[in-house]
Amino acid sequence: MITFEDVTKRYRDGTVAVDGLSLEASTGAITVFVGPSGCGKTTSLRMINRMIDATSGRITLDGQDVREIDPPTLRRGIGYVIQQAGLFPHRKIVDNVATVPYLLGWSKKKARSRAMELLELVGLDPALAGRFPFQLSGGQQQRVGVARALAADPPVLLMDEPFSAVDPIVRASLQDELLRLQLELRKTIVFVTHDIDEAVKLGDTVAVMRVGGRLAQMAGPATLLTEPADDFVREFLGRDRGIRRLSFISAKEMRLSPSPSDLVIDEDGRALGWRTADGLAAYGTFNPETDSLRVALDAALLSPNGTAVAVDEEGRVRGVAGRDSIDKLLGEYAPPATGPAPGGSGGGSSSGAGDSEGAPA
Amino acid sequence: MNWLAGFFGDAAHWSGPDGIPARLLEHLEFSAAAFLIAALIAVPLGMLIGHTGRGALLVVIAANAARALPTLGLLVLVVLLAGVGTVLPVLIPLVVLAIPPILVNTYEGVRGVDADLRDAAYGMGLRGRQVLLQTLTPVALPLILLGLRLAAVQVVSTATVAAFVGLGGLGRFIIDGLATKTYADVIGGAVLVAALALAVQFAFLLLDRVAVSPGVRQIR
Ligand SMILES: Nc1ncnc2c1ncn2[C@@H]1O[C@H](COP(=O)(O)OP(=O)(O)OP(=O)(O)O)[C@@H](O)[C@H]1O
Ligand SMILES: [Mg+2]
Questions:
Q1: What residues make up the domain containing B108?
Q2: Is B114 helix (H, G, I), strand (E, B) or coil?
Q3: Residue A344: is its pLDDT beyond 50?
Q4: Strand A78-81 vs strand A156-160: parallel, antiparallel, or unpaired?
Q5: pLDDT(A350) > 60
Q6: Which residue in chain A is spatially nearest to B214 when comparing CA positions?
């Protein structure tokens, strides 16, 4: 666990980048620092591995004050990933990944074989190992950056906007990859981003910071979406909070009906479309085992009759969920009314921003 | 052309203590000594100043002094101070001449390494000296080699002045040729100096190929 105890950072020019920050980042979880540009996210992150020293307050790592540890030793035990990957241009990919093992005095052979394992773990072709960084795409370089940070198997990983320099599609796949890795590795990750969608997608806990380096709210993503602490957080979360919250509700409990006769299914059990007078119409699918209520609702909206098709991993139809089933599940997770609601949503066009307990994320 | 044929065709020019091989060897000796001393001073100094940022003023002074410094004047001064007959009067001006390009380029190379890269190196847990030797230097190597090459070429060309103070080297052909109005020797000597400078240039290009990581050469 990483704890900040009343941590303040005042730069030499007088800028107070972080002001009295107290929070905990739980072991084995992803804690995201999010907030507008200049709010002190990077400064906070870099105080953990002492790339910056706090002016006052204490940061502890599993109970030990980081100031008691010599910085290079501390850093070798903490993975660090930055926006531009920061790979060493003069070293081959495999040696880039093996940087920390080499520093720790591993034999070249052991360090390299570990590096090869990691390249595979982050989804890179081992054939890239002999290349130099300039021969890789931005997304590939970023994966190498992650592999390098993980090479010596540190319990803690610090990531500073690691995916913000790549295009949205690559970014999404890197995010998915990180979540997949995390299921396996269970690292204590502190992740910095200014993108609230990324924060909500990746974070087990999200710490929203405001300019001046003060904590505005710290909560699970579902709670954050339903119960923003104040106008600043509400505005920062942006529109569609109600819809976005549905991402954290599993579609597992959706009541399915047998597929009706106007859903055309091929001999493998896969849907072909809805039969209409003009031929087959589009349909939307969701997998109740893995998808969220948001995906189910989206699937329903893609069908002309408002009915979502439930499928298994192989894409075989397991049943359908009509609006009534979706509505019922929506009702179960509706934010309960507890006294006067604290204002509408940021845009004021939708309601339902009342209090509620977030669904298990 | 005739003069060249006369100079290089003369068998007497190819042997003995004032033949081309002996003079070439002398020339290379002065040059190599001066170059090595300059490199041993200026490369570590440039690396250190580029890395720590302390002493940058020294680089600025060196760079400007280099432009203003009359090599021949310095040579005469050192002769007056140290006397004729030693190699010192030749070495000192050559070393002084060679230091600025090495110092300036090494400093610029190390200082100019991408701040994010330097940051990543520290972030991985490299210590200051490891950052300098394992990250900054390999990345700055093309510029460091450029500085060394400029210095080497300059030293090799300028070592001709050794002849002014009664020492050997290829300058002898030029000085003596002028004195005796043997213009074939003057031109022959000048051609040899130019060829040597080209050879040095070429040697450094080869060194660049071998020593600089392909990963660094590409991003330039
Ligand atoms: N070395 C420094 N000296 C003085 N002020 C600094 C320094 N580094 C950062 N700051 C200031 O501290 C504040 C917080 O900076 P920080 O880099 O932590 O922000 P950030 O939240 O990471 O922003 P971004 O999203 O733009 O990366 C900013 O006002 C910034 O200008
Ligand atoms: Mg930042």
A1: 2-219
A2: coil
A3: no
A4: parallel
A5: no
A6: A90
